[in-house]
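Quick one, tokens below. Sequence please?
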């Protein structure tokens, strides 16, 4: 993947939004494996990784049949990457839990959001409601 991205990574270093578009496209295409590899390549090449990039990858896990373990794993790694979770990342992780049949975890995550200084929005509540 690193070889295939080549010059793209250099461009992303100057314009991180370009990476967000690519990662969002991989999420829509239900390619979380590839999205995670792109994220790793970005970190290897010292390209800025932000919460929007990670939210896209979490969304890819959600869209690909609710890979809740991977979604929660990435959400849990955000602080180690010096990133704070946002409502989009939490909503995608809640939805991944729901699609994976883990409604209790979805509700726990929803309940943890205020402790993360996040106010659940209609997407978070909708994802939690769908999980049940």
């Amino acid at each position: 993947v690193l070889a295939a991205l080549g010059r793209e990574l250099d461009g992303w270093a100057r314009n991180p939004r370009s990476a967000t578009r690519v990662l969002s496209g991989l999420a829509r295409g239900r390619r979380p494996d590839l999205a995670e590899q792109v994220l790793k390549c970005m970190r290897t090449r010292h390209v800025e990784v932000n919460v929007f990039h990670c939210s896209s990858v979490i969304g890819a896990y959600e869209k690909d049949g609710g890979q809740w373990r991977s979604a929660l794993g990435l959400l849990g790694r955000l602080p180690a990457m010096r990133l704070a979770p946002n409502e989009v990342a939490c909503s995608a992780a809640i939805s991944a839990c729901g699609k994976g049949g883990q409604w209790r975890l979805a509700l726990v995550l929803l309940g943890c959001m205020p402790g993360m200084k996040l106010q659940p929005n209609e997407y978070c509540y909708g994802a939690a409601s769908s999980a049940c």
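The two ends are 37 Å apart (CA to CA). Residues 2-131 form one domain.
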